[in-house]
Amino acid sequence: MSASGRRIGFVLCSDASAPLPSTRISVFNVLPALRAAGYEAQIAFAPPQPTERPDVSGLAARLIADGIDIAYFQKVHGPGVRAEIETLRQAGVRTVYGVCDRIDDDMVRLTDATVIVTDYLKQQHAPELQARIHVVHDGIEHPEVRRREDIAAGDGRLRAILVTSGSPETVPVLGRPPRWLALTVVGQYPERETPLQALRARLRRVRHAPPGERLERLRGYAFTARAWQPQRVYEDLAGAEIGIIPVDMRPDPLPGRQVSYWQVKSENRLTLKMAAGLAVVASPVPSYLDIIEQGVNGYIAHSRADWLAALDALRDPQHRQSVGAAARASVLQRYSIDEQARRLIAVFDGLRGTAQPAGDTALLRMP
What we know:
By secondary structure, this protein is an alpha/beta fold. The chain has helices at about 20-25, 30-35, 60-65, 80-90, 105-110, 120-125, 195-210, 215-220, 230-240, 270-275, 285-290, 305-315, 315-330, 335-355, and strands spanning about 5-10, 40-45, 70-75, 95-100, 115, 135, 160-165, 180-185, 225, 240-245, 280, 300.
């Protein structure tokens, strides 16, 4: 171990050349703050291709030889990872598990501390493990982005935006938007399509759709589909009047759990839109419920009727402006990168302050 006790080695699930959003947000975005706080933070391992179950054979020996004091495992898991963690702990190296979308009591028990993105996900773990789990949210990446006041739909419709990592063909819960709503969905769509390519794609969607949905698919998108690009997405946000986050809430349980994937989503997509000053209507994702004050800084909508009522309320320009301003004010500091870095540094400081003798694998109880 190092003389300072401040050398951290990050073990990642994706490489710096093409990081997954989780790697970028939870690690790369906070590295400057860690270094400013006196930590020697380095990337100890990153796979050539993104994977949560990498081959880490011999990693513990390398980290020990490099004098690593704290090893942070970002989303990686599996037998090979657990074996290396055991070796590190026996050598007195503190270990941290960072996770955003899994419930893994075994990894929480094995490591000295676990960093997790939402209070809801923390609560899904065993009661006896709660004291060693610490919530560090996804930090807002571009707080300088703000909704433009001078943009409105030329036809008088309300401009809404949905940013997604997928390529939905329909809008969950809401279905076809009302005619007075001009919706743009930014996702994994082609950048450009010829009319013939678009027709072929539509026919493919019809062919693979359930029988009851084929007519709807044949009608085509009920929104403007736009290709996601890392910088342009912020221009898209700035050009909208409101944001929406409709979620398919059908049961889709995590392995061995009663909790569905949609329920463990982080606040990231919500705070992204709120920070831009957008009034947002969202499905009741558990992590959203502690952020949104109904009708004040946003809306939670359960049914289609709820969605239509909330959207209709936001057609009023003064109300929309008030909700958007309250949304931005409520998340800027609480979900800032600096605040999340402070939380993470507190975890590392706690590990250093309660260091155990080498080889002692007793549970670390953080205050």
